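Sequence in, structure out.
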Amino acid sequence: MRAPGKYVLFDVDGTLIDALDNQRTVWGTWALRHGLDPDEVYRTALRTRPMETFAEVAPDRDPHACLDLLHELEDEDVRTGDYTAFDGAAALLAALPTGSWALVTSNYEHRVLGRFARTGLPVPEVIVDAASVEEGKPSPVPYLLAAERLGARPEDCLVIEDAPSGVRAGLRAGMTVWSVNAAATASTQTGAHRRFAALGDAVRDILAFASAGAVPPADRRSHRVRPGDRPPAAPGPDTP
């Protein structure tokens, strides 16, 4: 039986679903439509949010028109692109108790549902998407809203992320944060309490947390990160 009040909050793209090639394709197509270098645009998009990307790579273009085209390309990719779930994702989500987990994504819910349908992943009761909040990651707001909707205390939540901005969001929400898929994202994921090279490597420990709230003593953190705080210094490499 699951210990009361233990919850797992998942990022989606790069964490549960391998969407890296899709993102590169979408941004590449967007860049070519504007006569820009696809590689340069993609490198910028990896470290900025869309409106910031437009301001940097196409400052003379209407940002709202740029965003409309990006959304059009992303929606088309959801319908026609190839998607795969990371190893362990399907079994992990199926094993989690109903009501004990949520998705917290910077994408939009209709795209998440489309990708989950394509990959056969189960859908939780709670999804916090880009339309749910005014402040996106690295703000703690998306993760705090997910906890609120689940009826959870932040300190009882485990965040699973692949990107530095998501790691910071979870830490600032006062949650335990584990990062996954470092090999896929080439990210150091600074500040996460634990780091796993692949999602599959973390499945056993995620289920242990969800079922008993057990976090290995070496990974416990007494410091609660408040909004605006800097994340704690990254620990040394973990051996899950």
